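Our collaborator T.R. sent over the components below with a one-line note: 'Predict the complex.' Nothing else. No constraints on interfaces, no templates requested, no preferences about which chain binds where. So this is a plain run: every listed entity goes in together, and whatever single assembly comes back becomes the starting point for the next discussion.
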Amino acid sequence: MLIDVLEMDVFFNPKTVAIIGASEKPRFGGGTTFYLLNSKFKTYPININSDTILGHKAYKNIKDVPDEIDLAIIIIGNEYVLQSVKDCIEKGVKGIIIESAGFAETGIEKYAKIQNELVEVIKQSKIRVIGPNCVGVSNFSNQFTSSDMDFTTPKGYIAVIAQSGVLGNVFIDWANSQGIFFSKTATIGNKVDVDEVDLLDYLNEDPETTVITLYLEGTKRGRELKKVFGRMKKPVIILKNGRSEIGSRAVNSHTSSIAGNDRIYDALFKQYPNVFRVDNFYELFNIAHVFATQPLPKGKNIAIVTGSGSLGALACDEIEKQGLILANLTDETIGIIRSVIPNWVSIGGTIDLGPSMFQTFIPSIKAIFKDKNVDCVLFIFSVPRVPLQRMGANRLEGFRIHMKVLKQAADEFKKPCIIVAFGSRWIFDYVKDATEYSKSDLTIPIMTQINHAIKAFRFMNEYNKSFYNDKK
Amino acid sequence: MLIDVLEMDVFFNPKTVAIIGASEKPRFGGGTTFYLLNSKFKTYPININSDTILGHKAYKNIKDVPDEIDLAIIIIGNEYVLQSVKDCIEKGVKGIIIESAGFAETGIEKYAKIQNELVEVIKQSKIRVIGPNCVGVSNFSNQFTSSDMDFTTPKGYIAVIAQSGVLGNVFIDWANSQGIFFSKTATIGNKVDVDEVDLLDYLNEDPETTVITLYLEGTKRGRELKKVFGRMKKPVIILKNGRSEIGSRAVNSHTSSIAGNDRIYDALFKQYPNVFRVDNFYELFNIAHVFATQPLPKGKNIAIVTGSGSLGALACDEIEKQGLILANLTDETIGIIRSVIPNWVSIGGTIDLGPSMFQTFIPSIKAIFKDKNVDCVLFIFSVPRVPLQRMGANRLEGFRIHMKVLKQAADEFKKPCIIVAFGSRWIFDYVKDATEYSKSDLTIPIMTQINHAIKAFRFMNEYNKSFYNDKK
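Returned assembly:
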């Protein structure tokens, strides 16, 4: 296992890189070529038809490169991949990322056969291979990538393992726009060699990763997957598709995985108190973000602070659905809130500060965090555009102070907090701006869906009760 | 019933308006005052302390206004509302919108008593009253509003009835940013008089409304609600909270509604084939948008066109969950697609055009819409940012042509189509731009969640099968 962990490191920290199929054309893999040739990573372009690529000397074959190669990235046509892998093995390359598609996932025998031959060739060598049919890896610490990525945001603590190219860049980009940041990502495609088991072990030891997200279409190593779950020291959030019969047929023609009976997977995941299953990509990253940034809650009591009674009521439905409890504030807390809010504001159940929120927020929020009956705080923010525009910049300044107070209270009482920004994108950006989100990676998560927030509180509760406390 | 319908019209088409509590201060209702005093609607400000408001002569009492008043908007402190309503009745006002909060929803006896007195006073007069504890109405046709709204987007065909101020402006603003447009909105708060029954009847007759969305916390007129559902000629999409016990307590302290046993509501809604229940606000408007813009499907067969196998597989799971069918393309269609896509692209189940989509889209999409085994088309679009940026404006031009072809095919074969734009906000805006969304209100809906799209197809199917066909 330790050898596996060391072997995986070549994918994230290569000293020398070759791009087989490097091209100047704006096609798949073009971004990676451009990025790596202009990066600090010593990169050799391999192209059978060109002598130079973007001003760098190109080689016809990887074997011609007058240097040792740690990692080769293959982005050539499916029918040439097998020979290329053989060349890499001969050259003594340590790792390969095969990004080319067109193997078992096509359902065409000819291409499935090439994949089988790849598996055999790899087995007989010491080389480690990610792919084919993927976009490879990104490491946000040293900014190495094979995924058509740039690095315009800070590094974070969430790692991604995914049987989907979408998670290698499209969804990282979405998450970054939400203020969710990453340590490492790996897309694994058809998994001729490296799979979720290898990468879970690797990321379990990675000091830069505190939470792991896994998008799985199916595993070929059920027994090993069980074992690795058993030795994980970190929370693992899983999205697995193929829940349905037609979904699992679709999975088969996507990465040629056998999705298997979904109930078996469900039962497997449920055995591990640090493994959590979610329903979609947005939820996957929103919940990982909460694990990565918030302290664990001591219990199930959620206080809901909002300016909208209807959103509060919807949150209550979700709290009951997730088996949590709406916090029953102490008389002391209610007294403090009552003393600052207008007589007509409602604090039965949820704490609906109404449109008066901006006069009452500071004293109320401190009392709520301090309350011994409160374990988690959900702040649901929503505001109409027209009156806000009329109030102008002063309002944002005031809100910024309130968000600072929220953060201070959360820190002082070490209780997890989530903000739900409800409505248009500008409301989300308004909150993000007020919390100065991008300047710190350890702050309060903002999301747009109440149910993601409540589910995150549930998962953290289960994690704290059944896993974290045991291991302490 | 007909009289009720005529009576409701004063709220949406008043000839003269009085704002009781009109103020120049940037507080609740300030936007409405500013908007109406600068609008084509003849508006009289009433303020006990000022002689002029925004340059308009102000009156101390509505009874002093030397003109007949159709509609009064009340935005004064809760303790002054009862007298103000009495003044309106004396003046012969036809309708009142009470926006002030602080009545039964506070749980405080003193304020609940004022609400009861309001009910009595109103009952003994001919006046009709919306509220209290609401933001009133907007009419996108004549641009009348009491809701702190502006009208920066075109009018649409969706009406809103809501026991929540958030739906009066915040969520309209969100929907507008998604390209979802409205005919009329009404928020009804604590419902001392006008309620969902009155407004359903009114909107049922409104030629500018084709779909009605209803956010309900609870009804006081169950029998009448059943009757009005029975006579509705349009689809009604409902979000009702208070599903849980704590949720229903929260509802009580929000608009003082009795949420009641949620299963009773669920059973009630299910009796009507044109009434559909959803789970959240985003879903409410996304699904209404599909009803408002798409032809009804002839069956349950959904074709999924995508550039991402994993998103396609997730959509399949959702299709099965909703009891629909993944379209089984004819050999002819598959032959056409196979002839244009690279050998390594996968079309088993979902139609995964892969990164090659831009070469294959036009011939494939026409064949798919034409296919007799296809009733609905879901196009899931997702693209990484970095390579797209490198390709620049040409790519958008190409995509624009593809979206035109999609729309033409949908129109030619009269089949409903939805686009899911997956990932960052810029991806959504990219699709919106390519479809020239804002220039037409009858186009293809774009949303960010696969499950909303599939659920919309299911509801339309049920509507067509059980309701629309019967009435034809």
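Summary for T.R.: The mean pLDDT of chain A is 89.
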